[in-house]
Amino acid sequence: MRTDLPQAIYRKDYTAPSFLVDTVDIGFDLDPITTRVATRLTMTRNPDSVNQNIVLNGEALELVQLRMNGKLLTKRGYTLQGGILQIPDAPDQVVLEIETLTHPEKNTSLMGLYVSNGNFFTQCEAEGFRKITFFPDRPDVMAKYTVMLRADKKKYPVLLSNGNLVEQGDLGDGRHYAKWEDPFKKPSYLFALVAAKLVCQEETYQLKSGRKVLLQVWVEKGNLDKTQHAMESLKHSIRWDEERFGLELDLDRFMIVAVGDFNMGAMENKGLNIFNTKFVLANPRIATDVDYANIESVVGHEYFHNWTGNRVTCRDWFQLSLKEGLTVFRDQEFSADMVGTASGRAVKRIEDVRLLRQVQFAEDAGPMAHPVRPDSYVEINNFYTVTIYEKGAEVVRMVQTLVGRDGFRKGMDLYFARHDGQAVECDDFRAAMADANRRNLKQFERWYSQAGTPQVKAETSYDPLAKTFEITLSQTCAATPGQAKKLPFHIPVAVGLLDAEGKDLVLHCDDGASAGVAGTLVLELTKAKQTFRFTQVNEQPVPSLLRDFSAPVVLEYDYSDAELALLLAHDSDPFNRWEASQRLAMRRLVKLTDAARNNEQLTLDPMFIDALRGVLMDDTLDPAFRELVLTLPSEAMVAEQFSVVDSQAIHAARQFMRGMVAQGLRTELLNAYETNLTPDAYSPDAEASGKRGLKNLALSYLLEWADESTCQLALAQFDTAHNMTDRQAALSALLNAESKAATKAASKSLKRFYKDFKNEPLVIDKWFMLQGMAHATDVAAMRALMTHPAFTLKNPNRARSLIFSFCNANPARFHAADGSGYAFWAEQVIALNAINPQVAARLVRSLDRWRKYAPKAQELMLLALQKVANSKKLSKDVQEVVSKSLAA
Ligand code: TRP
Ligand code: ZN
């Protein structure tokens, strides 16, 4: 068995580039079979460098010719080895002219220049530019680009690149050209071009300064009725960054282009953001409320990168979270501000934390755990992770919690004043925040350097005579690969104290606490163990700990059910109200899982149902918030509570609980269904989407007792829905209900759904996804689905919609006792590896926590992992994840 790792790259080995690039002139003769790329680089020796040679990266390129200062370089004039071209003995100033060939149509990796549905696109982050031309392809080399595009005019009427269009015209032979100039220096990963048959929705938009900018959303002709929401989101993003951070769009033109074949969500290329169609196209017929919200947040995310990422970029890829963590934080705040209300903000916060806990905490506890600023990697593509993005955003959020909102703004201002136009490190961001606020954030660096989720244990004691209440917090963090010992983190713990009625007490505490919102203090835990004493506490309080999830930690505190019920009913912090409901549910799910595993009788106490009823019936609460409380922790979350996971028992336990809730609250659920209908014209706003969310959750519960009447309810909703949210929810509820009637209705609806939407690829993705996730879908059914004419592994969205949803979101089937899920997984990884290594490596992650299962299951998983490890022509991407998964 091969477990050897390909060459790793270490952060400590960073050296400055030997040559800097001042200008890049790059010309393309675009052709799907063979595209000729002619590049002219003006370069200057970097006085800070120790390396003498010119060092260029190049991958999957044919080098036609190479000239230095006008002279042709023969093979004796340079070396080319392992994707690195080196030129020794160069003068201090050079002009390099490079001619290369690439084959876009054959490029299924979707990195570099590739073809999607007959059109040309590029994707350069992280290291794709080297598949276009030889170049020092590293983010600390920033240059000014001029781009000349030449292509067939009929097939590719639209020619786009970064910056401003400076010239265009006919070439006479049926071909035309366009010349683009980007006025800003940028790293190569932000380069982009599009040559395509597309149309756009465009608009002139006035900035607060009065300057007018041209905004465009480019899509295929049939999709022009699906661009409005992306355009609205873009305008909101521009306005928000002006208002919250004083950051203005620095270009006269800003373009968004949608492409159907794309490895990730979207890409922030300067002035030319390229998006997965999934995060652009929406109308009520094809997109759900969740899609609408995702589009707003991804459009915001990419737009915000213009300052956090592009104007100030990363010195090297170890600093990836410098731009990603900060930009996710900004997009989260943007989405929250767009909703506006306090409870709307809380809903957004809860959704973000749910993702963090379910996916990032799992990553931090597995073999791929890495710090927010990693120390090494084999393939950088494998480090676009929830740790870099979501935990990175939490780390930025903690800074804001520690220095306050205004202090955070001051820190941002200083960051841009110091580093505009530079490629910098995570430490530079932290230093700007510390200096602007005169705060010592030295210990805070450990959030960047240490992997793993800290566990914070709270203990309290009340002294009725002295009227003091003490909270003792202690922290530990488990070992992660390569990091056995951890030092204490600097953890902001926001707390409140509730009286017996659930009202916030006025807080008095002298032990290093800073003021949060009224009734909340932020305790700064910096030691392994620390006690905070509150005075003038007139009664035994109930502590509300880690309000608004003030730090990405697991907080342990021995709450009684009664205390949790009080928090759920009254806490002024809506996040902790929700949190109380999850604690109530989780402790029961853990017990039920144990009972299911031991074949014991499953029971649920009425107190839990009563607590849920209280929330469901509370009309003063937003429907969106009630939906979150009524949604039970996912099977994946339950799995995280166990050292040995039994997926079947977890499924049985959760299904049992769903059934009991459905039975206990049947009348109330029916009532919630009826009172939250949204008969008016579709709008994705928070209020309407919240109602749909609660109504559709109610429907899914009602179908736990799938008799004639509830099946009819779902079928009627499916048939008459005037939007995709309701249609998909009805189909999903039918697919996941277990009665004969529901199964029949589901299969009929699936057929109808396919027929109605067969020309909408994003909806067909939903069709595959719902089936991949459905409990009824076993491996045999998966294999059948893969033979459907609409299925292909080549399109990442399609592969994800079926394969990933099965492997990641259908645990009871994926972990079938016979190992059939694992064998299936290995086949798909191997097939994807040959097509698209990035996507393949993501799928490998579905088995990275194999050590958490029972011995028999481990054996079967190990076989599957070894099958992949031993297969031929493994990409670096897949090798890295497989070998790290197998490593002890
Ligand atoms: N930087 C992009 C973002 O966060 C994501 C990204 C990185 C990406 N590498 C990519 C997108 C490769 C597509 C393909 O917005
Ligand atoms: Zn990003």
Task: Please describe the structure with a list of short key phrases separated by commas or semicolons.
888 residues; alpha+beta; Immunoglobulin-like; nine-stranded mixed beta sheet; 26 helices; globular; binds tryptophan; binds zinc ion
Short description:
The chain is built from 26 helices and 33 strands. The chain is of the alpha+beta class and 888 residues long.
What does this protein look like?
With 888 residues, the chain is α+β, with helices and mostly antiparallel strands. Among the domains are: 10-197, Immunoglobulin-like; 313-449, Neutral Protease, domain 2 (Orthogonal Bundle); 455-570, Immunoglobulin-like; 758-888, Alpha Horseshoe (Zincin-like fold), CATH 1.25.50. It is built from 26 helices and 33 strands. Strands 2, 3, 5, 6, 9, 12, 14, 15 and 16 form a 9-stranded mixed β-sheet that branches. It has a 5-stranded mixed β-sheet with strand order 18-19-20-22-21, covered by helices on one side. It is globular. The two termini are 14 Å apart. The structure holds tryptophan (TRP) and zinc ion. Its cofactor is Zn(2+). Residues 230-447 form the Peptidase M1 membrane alanine aminopeptidase domain. Residues 452-558 form the Peptidase M1 alanyl aminopeptidase Ig-like fold domain. It comes from Undibacterium arcticum.
